[in-house]
Structure prediction request, 406 residues.
Amino acid sequence: MNPLLSLLQPYPFERLRQLFANITPNPAYTPISLGIGEPKHATPAFIQQALCAAVTQSPSGLASYPATAGEPRLRQTFADWLKGRYGLSVDPFTQTLPVNGSREALFALTQTLVNPGDSAVSGRKPLVVCPNPFYQIYEGAALLAGAEPYYVASDPERNFAPDWDSVPDDVWARTQQLFVCSPGNPTGAVMPLGEWQKLFALSDRFGFVIASDECYSEIYFRDEPPLGGLQAAAQLGRSDFKNLVSFTSLSKRSNVPGLRSGFVAGDAAILAQFLLYRTYHGCAMSPVVQAASAAAWGDEAHVVENRALYRTKFAQVTPMLAQVLDVALPDAGFYLWADVAGDDQVFARDLYAAFNVTVLPGSFLAREARGHNPGAGRIRMALVADTAECVQAAQRIVEFVETRRR
Prediction:
């Protein structure tokens, strides 16, 4: 077996299952889960119809192998969306590729980029840098590519923004890839232009590739939509997107996590090598999924409606929880990141036992680095269910905290 598999840590939800293993929740309450970031809003009917029509009406349907590069119509849809959303002009056939959800692509790009042979020369593994807290795929992708993850310290005073200035030059010199997530998971923070400028300068100096995870970009609470990585590059005169690849997905935007559909865009030279890797990897998108995806990317009305549902939900739930927890409305995304003023695992366990509400301990989303786990003492709550259920969960959490204080 691949010995690198032994380096992988249990996924956060496996750790949560173990935390709850010997607990019988209070049967007086129906279960409510705020643990997993899985969209629960209804999938738009027109996307389902496009999927079914592609099976029954297409002359090829499921009877032919799809091209790994995707159909021209779909890639043009990506370019059109990038133009409408960010004002970008990209070549759909050299600067975009379809992927089976951003998670799959985040992992696969790292396998394409990392050169573990560098360790034979230097005696040290190459580094993949990521924020902390972080999405665990970043870590797993690095480890299985033969690299070593480096967890950047975060600043609680700036909504847990990564402290890039804390990373020494000798770390950047070994870095082959940097993961960024904006809007961030779990904090919902959006990276400003100045932060992008700093990272581009570091990339130019040290030669690493920036992988920008932007799967939450279409759920936001301010009037201005979040800045994207490619958009930041263009504003800074980097229209070739050198050493930059952005990842986006339909899962959150269009409530289709089961469709497994997204796309990557950016540096044409990197995407050419990524396409080569994917051709051998065998991860071409099904023709019927491509048809449904093109329909979804081509419509914004359902995205506006979806965003309005989240805005209504957060407007009701956030003030309730703010009465008893240190929590505030995020910039974007569908998570609340709350300080529980104590042990996050004990909080999650006792809440589940007493009120049958599931939240994710923040320490499960981070790693101890340089003597500190930045997720400790916090919980992540995914407000993905309907408003009434989320409000009910919030009421239970308020009662739980108030009971503990007595």
